């Protein structure tokens, strides 16, 4: 299930951080900080799939050198508590290919650079070896000053002010870009930058996993990978959380189908399952939800119905197959 994440963070001296260190770490390179004399060497860092600088069209040639760019960003600030860089941390859809994820991240970086006149240093990271293997993400490190022919100039104050709405605008734009990329890739999932509360959705909560349960689940994943079989949670909390995620996935799966149906009111939805009777109210405008206790479902459409194009298939919840079908109106009463 595609997920949304875009967080904007400040890189500031008050927290003991520097633009040179941040850039070196994210890109997996070595940068010497001219202001402090410190050498930030992250050339042994693994998992950096791609790094690239996105610059305004009128940027000076020297700005294409990562070390020179971020040293210039540091030297442009004189205050001991100055903000020296800004970071956009984004999640990339696991449903897309590596090339598609790269183009998506670079597309956002290009738009940020064009709108605010800043340099954007893009670093795409693979999931951690022991973490969630769906966690493809990118770091977009930007200058806090506009970059023009004469070098770094005025501060981008619009990004410092909540009332400007710029950060929320980028969150909304990132959701639009992801959804367009998912659509082009024929992936039915969609993301929404709004919180569940703003969407009017009551989200079923997961339970916090402590260190012991997390370690047990990690070992179970490793054993399953070695044995060439699908991983299944082994702790009670892990099984609970997996069920929450699967049910959320099925809800999104069905909700995306209802959107497709809005201009096809002569059709009704038949969604056989035995776990989600409580969501039947979400289908008021498109038809009927049929519930079934079948333990196994034939993936072939039944009763003359037709599989929902783009949403056909099944999803497992608690080891039981669930499917979504389109059935002619009046077929189920």
From TrEMBL:
One Pfam family matching this protein: MobA_MobL
Superkingdom in the source lineage: Bacteria
Keywords in alphabetical order: Conjugation, Plasmid
Chain ranges of the MobA/MobL protein domain: 17-219
Transmembrane segments: none
Gene3D superfamilies: 3.30.930.30
NCBIfam families tied to this protein: MobQ
Family statement: Belongs to the MobA/MobL family.
Protein name: Conjugal transfer protein TraA
Organism encoding this protein: Sphingobium amiense
């Amino acid at each position: 299930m595609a997920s949304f994440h875009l967080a904007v963070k400040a890189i500031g001296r008050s927290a003991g951080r520097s633009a040179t260190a941040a850039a070196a770490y994210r890109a997996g390179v070595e940068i010497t900080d001219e202001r402090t004399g410190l050498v930030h060497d992250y050339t042994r860092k693994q998992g950096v799939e791609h790094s690239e600088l996105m610059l305004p069209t009128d940027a000076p040639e020297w700005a294409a050198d990562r070390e020179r760019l971020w040293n210039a960003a540091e030297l442009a600030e004189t205050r001991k508590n100055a903000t020296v860089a800004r970071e956009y941390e984004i999640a990339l859809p696991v449903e897309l290919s590596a090339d598609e994820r790269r183009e998506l991240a670079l597309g956002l970086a290009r738009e940020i650079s064009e709108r605010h006149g800043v340099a954007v240093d893009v670093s795409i990271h693979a999931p951690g070896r022991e973490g969630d293997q769906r966690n493809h993400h990118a770091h977009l490190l930007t200058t806090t000053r506009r970059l023009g022919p004469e070098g770094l100039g005025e501060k981008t104050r619009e990004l410092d002010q909540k009332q400007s709405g710029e950060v929320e605008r980028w969150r909304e734009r990132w959701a639009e870009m992801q959804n367009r990329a998912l659509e082009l890739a024929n992936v039915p999932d969609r993301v929404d930058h709004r919180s569940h509360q703003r969407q009017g959705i009551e989200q079923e909560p997961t339970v916090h996993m402590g260190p012991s349960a997390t370690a047990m689940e990690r070992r179970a994943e490793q054993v399953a990978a070695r044995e060439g079989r699908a991983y299944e949670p082994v702790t009670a909390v892990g099984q609970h959380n997996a069920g929450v995620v699967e049910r959320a996935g099925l809800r999104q799966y069905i909700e995306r189908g209802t959107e497709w149906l809005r201009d096809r009111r002569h059709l009704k939805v038949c969604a056989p399952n035995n776990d989600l009777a409580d969501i039947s109210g979400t289908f008021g405008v498109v038809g009927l939800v049929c519930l079934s206790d079948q333990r196994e479902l034939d993936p072939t459409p039944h009763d003359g119905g037709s599989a929902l194009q783009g949403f056909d298939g099944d999803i497992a919840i608690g080891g039981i197959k669930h499917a979504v079908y389109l059935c002619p109106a009046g077929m189920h009463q």
